[in-house]
Design goal:
The complex is a heterodimer of chains A (73) and B (390). Chain A is built from two helices and one strand. Chain A has helices at residues 2-22, 38-46, and one strand at 70-72. Chain A is elongated, with a radius of gyration of 30 Å. The N and C termini of chain A lie far apart (90 Å). Chain B is mainly alpha-helical. Chain B has helices at residues 13-16, 98-103, 110-114, 128-131, 137-149, 152-161, 172-187, 193-198, 207-216, 297-305, 307-313, 331-339, 353-364, and strands spanning 36-38, 41-43, 67-68, 74-75, 83-85, 236-237, 274-275. Chain B is globular and about 60 Å long. Classes of the chains: A mainly alpha (73), B mainly alpha (390). The A-B interface holds A 38-39, 41-42, 45-46, 49-57, 59-73 and B 62-63, 78, 80-87, 89-91, 93-97, 161-165, 173-174, 177-178, 180-181, 184-185, 188, 190-191, 195-199, 202, 205, 207, 210-211, 213-214, 217-218, 223, 227-229, 231, 262, 265, 280.
Protein backbone atom coordinates (compact mmCIF):
# COMPACT_ATOMS: atom_id res chain seq x y z
CA UNK A 1 0.00 0.00 0.00
CA UNK A 2 2.76 2.42 1.03
CA UNK A 3 4.78 1.38 -1.98
CA UNK A 4 1.81 1.98 -4.32
CA UNK A 5 1.20 5.45 -2.78
CA UNK A 6 4.90 6.34 -3.14
CA UNK A 7 4.92 5.30 -6.78
CA UNK A 8 1.88 7.42 -7.54
CA UNK A 9 3.45 10.40 -5.82
CA UNK A 10 6.69 9.96 -7.74
CA UNK A 11 4.78 9.76 -11.01
CA UNK A 12 2.89 12.94 -10.20
CA UNK A 13 6.09 14.78 -9.34
CA UNK A 14 7.75 13.54 -12.51
CA UNK A 15 4.81 14.67 -14.64
CA UNK A 16 4.87 18.04 -12.98
CA UNK A 17 8.61 18.40 -13.53
CA UNK A 18 8.26 17.42 -17.18
CA UNK A 19 5.45 19.89 -17.69
CA UNK A 20 7.51 22.65 -16.13
CA UNK A 21 10.60 21.74 -18.10
CA UNK A 22 8.73 21.76 -21.40
CA UNK A 23 7.07 25.07 -20.70
CA UNK A 24 8.64 28.39 -21.76
CA UNK A 25 6.02 30.47 -20.06
CA UNK A 26 4.67 30.63 -16.55
CA UNK A 27 1.26 29.43 -17.66
CA UNK A 28 2.45 25.93 -18.59
CA UNK A 29 2.70 24.32 -22.09
CA UNK A 30 2.41 26.74 -25.03
CA UNK A 31 1.30 26.19 -28.58
CA UNK A 32 4.01 26.43 -31.29
CA UNK A 33 4.25 29.81 -33.02
CA UNK A 34 2.21 30.01 -36.19
CA UNK A 35 4.26 32.83 -37.77
CA UNK A 36 7.46 31.57 -39.39
CA UNK A 37 10.56 33.74 -39.39
CA UNK A 38 11.65 35.44 -42.62
CA UNK A 39 14.56 33.02 -42.94
CA UNK A 40 12.28 30.04 -42.48
CA UNK A 41 10.01 31.39 -45.19
CA UNK A 42 12.92 32.06 -47.56
CA UNK A 43 14.45 28.63 -47.02
CA UNK A 44 11.07 26.97 -47.53
CA UNK A 45 10.53 28.89 -50.76
CA UNK A 46 13.97 27.93 -52.09
CA UNK A 47 13.60 24.24 -51.37
CA UNK A 48 12.46 22.18 -54.31
CA UNK A 49 14.13 24.34 -56.97
CA UNK A 50 17.41 22.45 -57.01
CA UNK A 51 19.38 25.43 -55.76
CA UNK A 52 22.58 24.52 -53.93
CA UNK A 53 25.66 26.43 -52.86
CA UNK A 54 28.47 26.04 -55.36
CA UNK A 55 31.77 25.21 -53.78
CA UNK A 56 35.04 26.38 -55.31
CA UNK A 57 35.99 24.11 -58.21
CA UNK A 58 39.42 22.83 -59.05
CA UNK A 59 41.15 24.23 -62.09
CA UNK A 60 40.71 22.04 -65.13
CA UNK A 61 43.90 20.59 -66.61
CA UNK A 62 44.05 21.47 -70.30
CA UNK A 63 45.39 18.04 -71.12
CA UNK A 64 42.49 16.28 -69.44
CA UNK A 65 40.73 15.47 -72.70
CA UNK A 66 37.60 13.41 -72.47
CA UNK A 67 36.91 11.99 -75.91
CA UNK A 68 33.26 11.45 -76.51
CA UNK A 69 30.92 10.58 -79.35
CA UNK A 70 29.38 13.41 -81.33
CA UNK A 71 25.68 13.43 -82.06
CA UNK A 72 24.89 15.45 -85.16
CA UNK A 73 21.25 16.12 -85.95
CA UNK B 1 43.83 36.60 -75.01
CA UNK B 2 45.85 36.47 -78.23
CA UNK B 3 44.42 37.95 -81.39
CA UNK B 4 46.39 35.45 -83.39
CA UNK B 5 43.43 33.12 -83.75
CA UNK B 6 41.31 35.64 -85.61
CA UNK B 7 41.66 35.81 -89.37
CA UNK B 8 42.65 39.46 -89.32
CA UNK B 9 44.73 39.16 -86.14
CA UNK B 10 42.60 41.90 -84.60
CA UNK B 11 40.20 40.01 -82.30
CA UNK B 12 40.78 37.60 -79.44
CA UNK B 13 38.29 35.60 -77.39
CA UNK B 14 38.77 38.31 -74.76
CA UNK B 15 37.64 41.01 -77.16
CA UNK B 16 34.09 39.90 -76.41
CA UNK B 17 34.78 38.10 -73.11
CA UNK B 18 37.16 40.43 -71.35
CA UNK B 19 38.20 40.26 -67.71
CA UNK B 20 38.01 44.07 -67.82
CA UNK B 21 34.29 43.94 -68.58
CA UNK B 22 33.25 41.05 -66.36
CA UNK B 23 33.78 38.33 -68.98
CA UNK B 24 31.50 40.04 -71.50
CA UNK B 25 32.07 43.15 -73.60
CA UNK B 26 29.54 45.52 -72.04
CA UNK B 27 27.85 46.07 -75.40
CA UNK B 28 24.36 45.07 -76.48
CA UNK B 29 25.64 43.34 -79.59
CA UNK B 30 29.29 42.51 -80.08
CA UNK B 31 31.49 44.06 -82.72
CA UNK B 32 33.74 41.42 -84.21
CA UNK B 33 36.65 41.57 -86.62
CA UNK B 34 37.31 44.66 -88.71
CA UNK B 35 36.23 47.10 -86.00
CA UNK B 36 37.32 50.71 -85.81
CA UNK B 37 38.86 51.60 -82.46
CA UNK B 38 38.21 55.09 -81.16
CA UNK B 39 38.55 56.36 -77.60
CA UNK B 40 38.66 52.85 -76.22
CA UNK B 41 35.45 51.72 -77.88
CA UNK B 42 34.91 49.41 -80.83
CA UNK B 43 32.73 50.64 -83.66
CA UNK B 44 31.67 48.78 -86.78
CA UNK B 45 34.20 48.89 -89.59
CA UNK B 46 33.19 49.55 -93.19
CA UNK B 47 31.10 46.71 -94.54
CA UNK B 48 30.85 44.95 -91.16
CA UNK B 49 27.78 44.12 -89.11
CA UNK B 50 27.02 43.58 -85.47
CA UNK B 51 26.90 40.02 -84.25
CA UNK B 52 23.23 39.10 -83.96
CA UNK B 53 23.40 38.36 -80.23
CA UNK B 54 24.90 39.61 -77.01
CA UNK B 55 28.27 38.21 -75.91
CA UNK B 56 27.29 36.29 -72.76
CA UNK B 57 29.28 36.38 -69.56
CA UNK B 58 31.37 33.33 -68.74
CA UNK B 59 30.93 33.29 -64.97
CA UNK B 60 28.96 30.05 -64.95
CA UNK B 61 30.17 28.64 -68.26
CA UNK B 62 32.35 25.97 -66.67
CA UNK B 63 29.83 24.87 -64.07
CA UNK B 64 27.94 22.32 -66.07
CA UNK B 65 24.97 23.94 -67.79
CA UNK B 66 23.33 21.71 -70.38
CA UNK B 67 23.33 24.27 -73.18
CA UNK B 68 25.69 26.88 -74.54
CA UNK B 69 25.05 29.74 -76.98
CA UNK B 70 21.84 31.75 -76.79
CA UNK B 71 20.03 29.26 -79.01
CA UNK B 72 21.55 26.30 -77.18
CA UNK B 73 22.90 24.84 -80.41
CA UNK B 74 25.68 23.13 -78.51
CA UNK B 75 24.59 20.90 -75.68
CA UNK B 76 25.43 17.92 -73.55
CA UNK B 77 21.78 17.04 -73.11
CA UNK B 78 22.56 13.39 -73.96
CA UNK B 79 25.22 13.18 -71.25
CA UNK B 80 28.73 14.41 -70.46
CA UNK B 81 30.99 14.43 -73.51
CA UNK B 82 28.12 13.57 -75.86
CA UNK B 83 27.77 16.81 -77.73
CA UNK B 84 24.68 17.60 -79.68
CA UNK B 85 25.33 19.97 -82.56
CA UNK B 86 23.50 21.33 -85.60
CA UNK B 87 24.08 19.45 -88.85
CA UNK B 88 26.59 21.99 -90.16
CA UNK B 89 28.91 21.59 -87.20
CA UNK B 90 30.91 18.41 -86.82
CA UNK B 91 33.30 18.52 -83.89
CA UNK B 92 36.52 16.53 -83.52
CA UNK B 93 36.93 14.12 -80.65
CA UNK B 94 39.16 14.92 -77.72
CA UNK B 95 37.29 17.93 -76.41
CA UNK B 96 37.29 18.28 -72.63
CA UNK B 97 33.70 19.48 -72.31
CA UNK B 98 31.00 21.82 -73.51
CA UNK B 99 33.06 24.94 -72.93
CA UNK B 100 35.89 23.57 -75.08
CA UNK B 101 33.36 22.64 -77.77
CA UNK B 102 32.12 26.22 -77.72
CA UNK B 103 35.65 27.53 -78.22
CA UNK B 104 35.81 25.72 -81.57
CA UNK B 105 33.06 27.86 -83.07
CA UNK B 106 33.90 31.61 -83.10
CA UNK B 107 37.08 31.11 -85.16
CA UNK B 108 34.89 29.77 -87.98
CA UNK B 109 32.49 32.71 -87.87
CA UNK B 110 33.21 35.46 -90.38
CA UNK B 111 31.60 38.25 -88.34
CA UNK B 112 33.15 37.32 -85.02
CA UNK B 113 36.72 36.24 -85.79
CA UNK B 114 37.42 34.92 -89.28
CA UNK B 115 36.76 37.87 -91.56
CA UNK B 116 35.80 38.10 -95.19
CA UNK B 117 37.63 36.79 -98.25
CA UNK B 118 40.00 39.48 -99.42
CA UNK B 119 40.57 40.94 -95.94
CA UNK B 120 44.06 42.02 -94.99
CA UNK B 121 45.06 41.36 -91.42
CA UNK B 122 46.36 43.84 -88.85
CA UNK B 123 49.88 43.50 -90.24
CA UNK B 124 48.78 43.98 -93.86
CA UNK B 125 49.21 40.32 -94.75
CA UNK B 126 46.63 38.19 -96.52
CA UNK B 127 44.01 36.61 -94.25
CA UNK B 128 44.34 32.94 -95.16
CA UNK B 129 41.61 31.83 -92.75
CA UNK B 130 39.06 33.94 -94.59
CA UNK B 131 39.95 32.35 -97.93
CA UNK B 132 38.61 28.97 -96.83
CA UNK B 133 35.03 28.40 -98.00
CA UNK B 134 32.26 28.45 -95.40
CA UNK B 135 31.47 25.09 -93.88
CA UNK B 136 35.00 23.69 -94.18
CA UNK B 137 35.53 23.96 -90.46
CA UNK B 138 38.23 21.28 -90.26
CA UNK B 139 40.37 23.26 -92.71
CA UNK B 140 39.81 26.46 -90.73
CA UNK B 141 40.81 24.78 -87.48
CA UNK B 142 43.91 23.29 -89.10
CA UNK B 143 44.95 26.67 -90.49
CA UNK B 144 44.39 28.40 -87.14
CA UNK B 145 46.45 25.77 -85.35
CA UNK B 146 49.25 26.12 -87.90
CA UNK B 147 49.45 29.78 -86.94
CA UNK B 148 49.74 28.87 -83.28
CA UNK B 149 52.38 26.19 -83.67
CA UNK B 150 54.49 28.38 -85.94
CA UNK B 151 55.40 30.36 -82.82
CA UNK B 152 57.92 28.37 -80.80
CA UNK B 153 56.78 29.77 -77.45
CA UNK B 154 53.25 28.53 -78.10
CA UNK B 155 54.51 25.15 -79.28
CA UNK B 156 56.50 24.74 -76.07
CA UNK B 157 53.48 25.63 -73.97
CA UNK B 158 51.28 23.17 -75.84
CA UNK B 159 53.86 20.43 -75.47
CA UNK B 160 53.96 21.12 -71.73
CA UNK B 161 50.17 21.15 -71.41
CA UNK B 162 49.66 18.01 -73.52
CA UNK B 163 52.77 15.92 -72.84
CA UNK B 164 51.31 12.76 -74.36
CA UNK B 165 50.47 14.35 -77.69
CA UNK B 166 53.17 14.68 -80.40
CA UNK B 167 53.35 18.15 -81.93
CA UNK B 168 52.16 16.77 -85.26
CA UNK B 169 49.00 15.51 -83.55
CA UNK B 170 48.11 18.80 -81.88
CA UNK B 171 44.85 20.11 -83.29
CA UNK B 172 42.64 23.07 -82.62
CA UNK B 173 40.72 20.92 -80.13
CA UNK B 174 43.79 21.14 -77.90
CA UNK B 175 43.74 24.92 -78.17
CA UNK B 176 40.04 24.81 -77.33
CA UNK B 177 40.73 22.65 -74.28
CA UNK B 178 43.38 25.10 -73.12
CA UNK B 179 41.05 28.08 -73.66
CA UNK B 180 38.30 26.32 -71.70
CA UNK B 181 40.72 25.55 -68.87
CA UNK B 182 41.66 29.23 -68.67
CA UNK B 183 38.03 30.33 -68.75
CA UNK B 184 37.13 27.89 -65.99
CA UNK B 185 39.98 29.07 -63.82
CA UNK B 186 39.65 32.81 -64.47
CA UNK B 187 35.90 33.27 -64.64
CA UNK B 188 34.28 30.76 -62.29
CA UNK B 189 33.06 32.91 -59.42
CA UNK B 190 30.81 31.19 -56.93
CA UNK B 191 31.32 32.76 -53.53
CA UNK B 192 28.30 35.04 -53.45
CA UNK B 193 26.23 36.19 -50.50
CA UNK B 194 23.50 33.86 -51.73
CA UNK B 195 25.91 30.91 -51.72
CA UNK B 196 26.81 31.70 -48.14
CA UNK B 197 23.12 31.98 -47.25
CA UNK B 198 22.51 28.59 -48.84
CA UNK B 199 25.33 27.29 -46.67
CA UNK B 200 23.23 28.26 -43.61
CA UNK B 201 24.59 31.75 -42.91
CA UNK B 202 21.37 33.64 -42.15
CA UNK B 203 23.23 36.94 -41.99
CA UNK B 204 24.61 36.70 -45.52
CA UNK B 205 21.55 38.32 -47.11
CA UNK B 206 20.01 41.69 -46.31
CA UNK B 207 16.36 41.78 -45.31
CA UNK B 208 15.56 43.40 -48.65
CA UNK B 209 17.34 40.60 -50.52
CA UNK B 210 15.48 37.98 -48.47
CA UNK B 211 12.17 39.56 -49.45
CA UNK B 212 13.46 39.55 -53.03
CA UNK B 213 14.24 35.84 -52.71
CA UNK B 214 10.70 35.20 -51.51
CA UNK B 215 9.42 36.92 -54.65
CA UNK B 216 11.97 35.22 -56.93
CA UNK B 217 11.05 31.74 -55.69
CA UNK B 218 7.37 32.60 -55.30
CA UNK B 219 4.99 35.23 -56.59
CA UNK B 220 7.22 36.56 -59.37
CA UNK B 221 7.67 33.04 -60.85
CA UNK B 222 11.35 33.69 -61.70
CA UNK B 223 12.41 30.29 -60.39
CA UNK B 224 10.06 28.46 -62.72
CA UNK B 225 12.72 29.19 -65.36
CA UNK B 226 15.78 30.20 -63.33
CA UNK B 227 16.31 27.15 -61.16
CA UNK B 228 18.93 24.50 -60.47
CA UNK B 229 22.45 25.14 -59.21
CA UNK B 230 23.10 27.86 -61.78
CA UNK B 231 19.65 29.46 -61.57
CA UNK B 232 19.23 28.80 -65.29
CA UNK B 233 21.06 27.27 -68.30
CA UNK B 234 18.79 24.22 -68.33
CA UNK B 235 16.05 25.14 -70.77
CA UNK B 236 14.59 27.76 -73.09
CA UNK B 237 11.81 30.33 -73.04
CA UNK B 238 10.17 32.95 -75.17
CA UNK B 239 10.30 35.98 -72.93
CA UNK B 240 8.86 38.62 -75.24
CA UNK B 241 12.15 40.44 -75.72
CA UNK B 242 12.10 43.41 -78.14
CA UNK B 243 13.85 42.47 -81.38
CA UNK B 244 17.12 44.21 -82.09
CA UNK B 245 20.05 43.81 -84.46
CA UNK B 246 20.77 42.31 -87.87
CA UNK B 247 18.98 39.06 -87.06
CA UNK B 248 20.09 35.63 -88.12
CA UNK B 249 18.85 32.54 -89.88
CA UNK B 250 15.62 32.21 -91.79
CA UNK B 251 13.90 34.95 -89.81
CA UNK B 252 16.51 37.66 -90.55
CA UNK B 253 16.41 40.56 -90.00
CA UNK B 254 14.65 39.11 -86.98
CA UNK B 255 16.14 36.45 -84.72
CA UNK B 256 13.87 33.45 -84.18
CA UNK B 257 16.31 31.82 -81.77
CA UNK B 258 16.25 28.10 -81.20
CA UNK B 259 13.55 27.46 -83.78
CA UNK B 260 16.12 27.91 -86.52
CA UNK B 261 19.00 25.69 -85.53
CA UNK B 262 17.92 22.13 -86.17
CA UNK B 263 16.53 22.69 -89.66
CA UNK B 264 13.07 21.40 -88.96
CA UNK B 265 14.14 18.50 -86.76
CA UNK B 266 12.26 20.13 -83.93
CA UNK B 267 9.32 21.81 -85.65
CA UNK B 268 7.47 22.13 -82.38
CA UNK B 269 10.01 24.60 -81.00
CA UNK B 270 8.23 27.94 -80.74
CA UNK B 271 9.67 31.08 -82.28
CA UNK B 272 11.85 33.38 -80.23
CA UNK B 273 12.99 30.63 -77.85
CA UNK B 274 16.31 31.52 -76.25
CA UNK B 275 18.41 29.90 -73.58
CA UNK B 276 17.42 30.84 -70.05
CA UNK B 277 20.73 32.26 -68.84
CA UNK B 278 22.33 31.36 -65.52
CA UNK B 279 22.02 34.21 -63.04
CA UNK B 280 25.07 33.94 -60.82
CA UNK B 281 26.92 37.28 -60.99
CA UNK B 282 24.12 38.64 -63.17
CA UNK B 283 24.65 42.10 -61.70
CA UNK B 284 27.95 42.26 -63.61
CA UNK B 285 26.76 40.95 -66.97
CA UNK B 286 24.84 43.95 -68.33
CA UNK B 287 23.40 44.59 -70.84
CA UNK B 288 20.75 41.91 -70.59
CA UNK B 289 18.70 39.50 -72.70
CA UNK B 290 19.89 37.64 -75.81
CA UNK B 291 20.41 40.93 -77.64
CA UNK B 292 21.45 43.17 -74.78
CA UNK B 293 18.35 45.27 -75.20
CA UNK B 294 18.13 46.26 -71.51
CA UNK B 295 20.92 48.14 -69.80
CA UNK B 296 19.97 47.51 -66.16
CA UNK B 297 18.51 44.86 -63.89
CA UNK B 298 15.77 47.33 -63.01
CA UNK B 299 14.74 47.45 -66.67
CA UNK B 300 14.72 43.64 -66.85
CA UNK B 301 12.48 43.36 -63.80
CA UNK B 302 10.15 46.02 -65.23
CA UNK B 303 10.00 43.96 -68.44
CA UNK B 304 8.97 40.80 -66.63
CA UNK B 305 6.52 42.69 -64.44
CA UNK B 306 4.46 43.46 -67.52
CA UNK B 307 5.89 41.97 -70.71
CA UNK B 308 3.07 43.09 -72.95
CA UNK B 309 3.45 46.69 -71.87
CA UNK B 310 7.25 46.59 -72.02
CA UNK B 311 7.22 45.15 -75.52
CA UNK B 312 4.82 47.77 -76.85
CA UNK B 313 6.35 50.71 -75.02
CA UNK B 314 10.04 49.96 -75.62
CA UNK B 315 11.96 53.17 -76.23
CA UNK B 316 14.87 52.71 -78.67
CA UNK B 317 16.45 55.93 -77.45
CA UNK B 318 17.66 53.82 -74.52
CA UNK B 319 19.93 51.96 -76.94
CA UNK B 320 23.40 52.89 -78.07
CA UNK B 321 22.93 55.33 -80.99
CA UNK B 322 24.64 52.94 -83.40
CA UNK B 323 21.98 50.31 -82.69
CA UNK B 324 18.79 52.38 -82.73
CA UNK B 325 18.17 51.89 -86.44
CA UNK B 326 18.32 48.10 -85.93
CA UNK B 327 15.38 48.03 -83.49
CA UNK B 328 12.39 46.23 -84.99
CA UNK B 329 9.46 48.03 -83.40
CA UNK B 330 6.96 47.61 -86.20
CA UNK B 331 3.51 46.33 -85.16
CA UNK B 332 3.90 43.08 -87.13
CA UNK B 333 7.11 42.14 -85.31
CA UNK B 334 5.71 43.07 -81.92
CA UNK B 335 2.65 40.98 -82.69
CA UNK B 336 4.80 37.95 -83.64
CA UNK B 337 6.87 38.20 -80.49
CA UNK B 338 3.76 38.71 -78.39
CA UNK B 339 2.09 35.66 -79.95
CA UNK B 340 5.04 33.44 -78.99
CA UNK B 341 5.19 34.70 -75.41
CA UNK B 342 5.56 32.10 -72.67
CA UNK B 343 2.28 31.41 -70.90
CA UNK B 344 3.72 32.34 -67.52
CA UNK B 345 4.34 35.86 -68.76
CA UNK B 346 0.97 36.48 -70.38
CA UNK B 347 -0.46 38.27 -67.38
CA UNK B 348 1.18 41.19 -65.54
CA UNK B 349 2.94 40.24 -62.31
CA UNK B 350 1.65 43.36 -60.57
CA UNK B 351 4.79 43.79 -58.52
CA UNK B 352 4.99 47.04 -56.60
CA UNK B 353 7.94 49.38 -57.00
CA UNK B 354 9.19 48.19 -53.61
CA UNK B 355 8.91 44.55 -54.66
CA UNK B 356 10.80 45.22 -57.87
CA UNK B 357 13.59 46.81 -55.82
CA UNK B 358 13.61 43.76 -53.56
CA UNK B 359 14.02 41.48 -56.56
CA UNK B 360 16.95 43.54 -57.79
CA UNK B 361 18.50 43.37 -54.31
CA UNK B 362 18.21 39.60 -54.42
CA UNK B 363 19.77 39.43 -57.89
CA UNK B 364 22.69 41.51 -56.62
CA UNK B 365 23.20 39.02 -53.80
CA UNK B 366 24.28 36.53 -56.48
CA UNK B 367 27.52 38.45 -57.05
CA UNK B 368 30.85 37.02 -55.98
CA UNK B 369 32.86 40.09 -54.83
CA UNK B 370 35.99 38.71 -56.50
CA UNK B 371 34.21 38.95 -59.87
CA UNK B 372 34.15 42.74 -59.69
CA UNK B 373 37.80 43.15 -60.57
CA UNK B 374 39.45 40.50 -62.75
CA UNK B 375 42.34 42.54 -64.13
CA UNK B 376 44.73 40.03 -62.60
CA UNK B 377 43.65 37.48 -65.22
CA UNK B 378 45.24 39.52 -67.99
CA UNK B 379 48.92 38.77 -68.73
CA UNK B 380 51.29 41.59 -69.59
CA UNK B 381 51.97 39.99 -72.96
CA UNK B 382 51.23 36.90 -75.04
CA UNK B 383 53.65 34.87 -77.19
CA UNK B 384 52.22 36.18 -80.45
CA UNK B 385 53.44 39.65 -79.47
CA UNK B 386 50.11 41.17 -80.49
CA UNK B 387 48.63 43.77 -78.11
CA UNK B 388 46.58 42.36 -75.24
CA UNK B 389 44.68 45.25 -73.71
CA UNK B 390 42.80 46.93 -76.55
Amino acid sequence: MTLRRSSALAAAILASLLATACSDSPGGLTTPPTERSLDQQVRASISGWGVVPILPINAQAPGACRPGPITVL
Amino acid sequence: LTKFLSGNRDVSCATCHSPLTNSGDGQSLAVGTGAILANGTRALGTGRQFTPRNAPSLFSAALGGFYIFWDGRLSEEFGPGRFRTPSDLSLPSGLSGLLAAQAMVPVTNRVEMRGNAGDRDATGASNELAQIPDGQNAAIWDAAMRRVLAISAYQQKFNAAFPGVPTTQLGFQHAANAIAAFEAQAFTKSNSAFDRYLARDDNALSTEAKHGALLFFGKALCSTCHNGPLLGAQSFASAGVPQLGPGTGSAAPLDAGREDIFNGVKPSTPQFFFRIPPLRNVELSAPYMHNGVYATLEAVVRHYNNVDSALKAFDPSELDPSLRSTYHGDPATISKVRAALDGRLQQPMRLTVEEQAQLVAFLKSLTDPSARDMKAAIPASVPSGLPVKD
